[in-house]
Specification:
six-stranded mixed β-sheet, single chain, 36% strand, Immunoglobulin-like, 3 helices, five-stranded mixed β-sheet, Arrestin domain containing 1a, Arrestin-like_C, Arrestin_domain-protein, mainly beta, Ig_E-set, 20 strands
């Protein structure tokens, strides 16, 4: 090396594997046997991806840069005889993808040092590689839980005349694995022909796609296991295991030029029947306990269940809230337990129950509807239970029970009663607010509709004589 006896790059603690977002530090050691003039001493740290169309070629057809940082550790001057040490430190971006080396491309990270010498003198450079690992947590992959299954039906011809059918179904016990775990493969083969099939096989496959102008695909068989044959008109269930060897992870997050996929291929040698089961290879294995805890966790916004009493009270309250403009003058009532229904008076001629919310009709239905007049100081106010509580959005002075039922003749309402002894809810409260006990209401006779008396009453003398 002439004047230069030693030129080395050493990373702190001899560390070679780093994580995104971590800092990388070390020293550059230069030892010269005589004075060496230089323009500058620089240290560079960079990461990039390069892909090509030729196997193991480094003349990249496409490149992708992730970061490129340079620091000057010595300015223009002369390195004296002896050993010199220059420290450096860089920060790795959090978005940098995991290192990868394939047949048609690589993701490379390295630290390089340069000694720029004056004109016509020899320049010196040195580099060392390090590896970046961005762990893939399988628990964070969407739709990762459960098994992976598939099925295929294949028709084929043998002996030039006969036609047969093979039904192949297969599944894996999980959708994600880490190196060292075992893939449980279960296959069902139904041979519906008169000819025995070839051997069964299950393979762990890797497919790497290099996104050049015309994408390049690199297929590799990582591991393969083989089974027996299925005889004519027989159905066989085949179970096998595949151990996952050390492999690059499925996702190279942050890289747009290289895509890695894994799948299990289940096939028959003869006839040509094949299906694939996509899987993920990661660094953090699936935690089934975490999955069960997520499924068992109740919703955070779940409201406590209301008791029947509170639900009934809230329903009555919501049904009896009048408009804000009349809330100051509308009397309120207190729900009480319904007393035993009393006998109803004889039915009267039916009149129309359609009315305006602000002017209840003077005539009303009772009997089948259960309506009862109230002698409580509110003249000409009646209620018909045929009117739904939701019929009007604003009805001053009217209170409807949310639980009232519209029954036929002889059916007693089951909703809460406010006053009276007929079992029908009263829409109006007494003048003094609330009563301590239900008071039976007397229905006044309606002389206009009565058929009695049919003749004049006897005179005083006739009464005395009888």
């Amino acid at each position: 090396m002439g004047k230069l006896q030693e030129f080395e790059i050493a990373l702190d603690k001899n560390k070679v594997v780093y994580s995104p977002g971590e800092s990388i530090s070390g020293t550059v050691t230069i030892k010269v046997k005589q004075a060496l003039p230089c323009k500058a001493i620089k240290v560079n740290c960079n990461g990039f991806c390069g892909i090509t169309n030729k196997v193991n070629d480094t003349a990249w057809t496409m490149e992708e840069q992730y970061f490129n940082s340079t620091v000057s550790v010595a300015d223009k001057g002369t390195l004296k005889q002896g050993e010199h040490t220059f420290p450096f430190k860089f920060l790795i971006p959090a978005s940098a993808p995991t290192s990868f080396e394939g047949n048609y491309g690589r993701i490379i990270y390295r630290v390089r040092a340069f000694i720029d010498t004056p004109r016509f003198a020899k320049d010196y450079n040195k580099e060392t590689a390090f590896y970046l690992l961005s762990p893939l947590n399988l628990n964070e992959v969407p739709d990762i839980w459960g098994t992976c299954s598939s099925a295929v039906t294949q028709q084929f011809t043998y002996m030039l005349v006969k036609t047969g059918t093979v039904v192949l179904k297969a599944q894996t016990d999980m959708k994600g694995y880490t190196p060292g775990q075992i893939i449980q493969v279960t296959a069902n083969i139904h041979n519906q022909s008169g000819k025995s099939t070839g051997n069964m096989a299950a393979s762990l496959m890797q497919r790497v796609t290099y996104e050049t102008k015309k994408p390049t695909y690199d297929m590799r068989t990582i591991a393969e296991v083989e089974g027996g044959v299925v005889k004519a008109s027989k159905e066989v269930q085949w179970k096998e295991q595949i151990i996952v060897p050390p492999l690059p992870q499925s996702s190279l997050a942050g890289c747009e030029l290289i895509k890695i996929e894994y799948y299990v291929k289940v096939s028959l040698k003869s006839p040509d029947v094949m299906l694939t089961l996509p899987i993920h290879i990661g660094n953090v294995s699936l935690d089934k306990k975490l999955h069960r805890s997520k499924k068992a966790a109740p919703p955070s916004s779940a409201a406590p269940e209301d008791t029947p009493a509170s639900a009934s009270a809230s329903a009555s309250a919501s049904a009896s809230v009048p408009d804000a403009s009349t809330s100051a003058t509308t009397p309120t009532t207190t729900p009480r337990t319904a007393p035993k229904p009393a006998p109803r008076p004889a039915p009267r001629p039916r009149m129309s129950s359609h009315s305006s919310p602000s002017a209840p009709p003077a005539e009303y239905h009772h009997g089948a509807e259960g309506g009862t007049p109230m002698n409580d100081g509110f003249p000409n106010k009646r209620q018909s239970q045929l009117v739904s509580p939701n019929a009007f959005s604003y009805a001053p002075g009217l209170f409807f029970s949310q639980n009232q039922q519209h029954g036929g003749p002889g059916t007693a309402p089951t909703g809460p009663t406010f006053s009276g002894s007929t079992g029908a809810p009263s829409p109006y409260a007494p003048e003094n607010g609330s009563s301590s006990a239900p008071t039976p209401l007397i229905l006044p006779p309606d002389y206009g509709a009565s058929s009695y008396p049919q003749e004049a009453p006897p005179s005083y003398d006739e009464s005395c004589n009888t």
